[in-house]
Amino acid sequence: MRNFDEDNITQAVLDRLSGCTDPRMRRISEALVRHLHAFVKEIEPSEEEWAGAITFLTRTGQMCSDTRQEFILLSDTLGVSMLVDAINHRFDEGATQTTVLGPFYVEEARDFPLGAHIAHESDGPGLIVEGTIEDSRGNPIAGALIETWHADDRGFYDVQRDTGKSALDMRARFHTDQEGRFWYRSVVPAAYPIPNDGPVGAMLDAQGRHPFRPAHVHFKLSAPGFETIVTHVFIDGDPYLDSDVVFGVKDALITNLSRIEGRVSPGGHEVESRTSLIAYRFVLPDKTIS
Amino acid sequence: MRNFDEDNITQAVLDRLSGCTDPRMRRISEALVRHLHAFVKEIEPSEEEWAGAITFLTRTGQMCSDTRQEFILLSDTLGVSMLVDAINHRFDEGATQTTVLGPFYVEEARDFPLGAHIAHESDGPGLIVEGTIEDSRGNPIAGALIETWHADDRGFYDVQRDTGKSALDMRARFHTDQEGRFWYRSVVPAAYPIPNDGPVGAMLDAQGRHPFRPAHVHFKLSAPGFETIVTHVFIDGDPYLDSDVVFGVKDALITNLSRIEGRVSPGGHEVESRTSLIAYRFVLPDKTIS
Fold first, then answer.
1. B12 lies within 8 A of chain A by CB
2. Taking CA atoms, which of A10, A168, B106, B201 is between 20 and 30 Å from B225?
3. Contact flag A88-B21 (C-beta cutoff 8 Å)
């Protein structure tokens, strides 16, 4: 086959995939070619525009490091991460709703004992997080793994500091007790702009969009026999709840940030004066057979 | 807006673009969101598959350097570069047909006098290239700029050697003489696999595709008052003419590699014995008003 033009190139590329022996790879490749060609045919890019797209993608890849994932930001800000999340969580009613992982998850977070204070480099307002993890029948799940991470009171994650991954902060792993409970002390996180000094920030500018996310705490929750849940808990009243740049907000994930009166939290833990509380009841779905 | 799911996320992202004041940026962004979401909805990627896509794109960006452009390779091997080329060259009949720029174009090539030998680091079989550049009425174009580059007899470009861009070879700029002619000496280029030690090579493997391009010489031709042409001349008889991995072959761009008998080329230039000839008549289209 030779002499490809606008009318025959798409089928030619599809024909070239006929030797693909992995059916899933073939299906994905065929769909990619069809949708990508349809996009290009619709917008009819100039050669300068297509070269600009190549440069944009190249810069996006080269912005990535061990503490920054610009392609996840791109997927998040185009709503694709939430779409993939929705496709993969057609769960039972009653389980905790899911949302995006985001670009700041770090696998190497440390284990802490329940109750630990996990914010060492921030002197923001005090916070206690009190959660329970249950199954869909209301039974507590003991020994469940909680991975949690959040921004400081100025809206920055640990890995955005000069120390990068060498000084993890506001980031920890816990396990629930026999009653399915976990709790830890930290600082109240602030709303923040996603990192906008790279290609994704330039894209948002060009699209006339703000780069902000409402204040939230991330959770990744897992336990044997249950589906893993990746989610956030958002703080009610945040001005960005209705315009989250990554489309991650769900009403069921919003909770009040309440001020604790006195020196004992609702969960029975001693706290300093003026400590705020985030409390949330998480429900893990039973593992689906796949 | 909150609570995004498979049914409402696409429209939500489109709505978010309503503040985009650049109509072209808005049109491109909207089309990107619609086609990208349609692709994801069709293939329903698992979270592992989508994470794999993020990793693939990240590695593709990080494979790029000043001598390698992996995203151009991706665009080329998915047939998108030829599609963009076709969309942008709906020219007058009679002009030379165009094809992909490819990933090995280098802006910093040197000027040479007509007739120069441009292969210094290869001892492959001798070649003389003799071309003319004319307008669509058959008038020679004097002083036209020729940028030309090609692989050696083993299928490697200069920038693929250890010396990178520091020792450009088989790559030059010339200007046509008063009769619109140019000629230079080099070595016969071989068919070659595109660089396949990166993500694009892995993709081709997974798709069951070979990575080869048929032997060719690249040309970028420009002159005041004419549209710039980016094209190749292919060598007839190559086994990959019908399966070029980047879909770049057009019959009108194929020419014989003829062996010159004696010591004088058809263009009247002295050559060594057993020199091969590539001759081609290029026609530049008049500049379109845009």
1. yes
2. B106
3. no
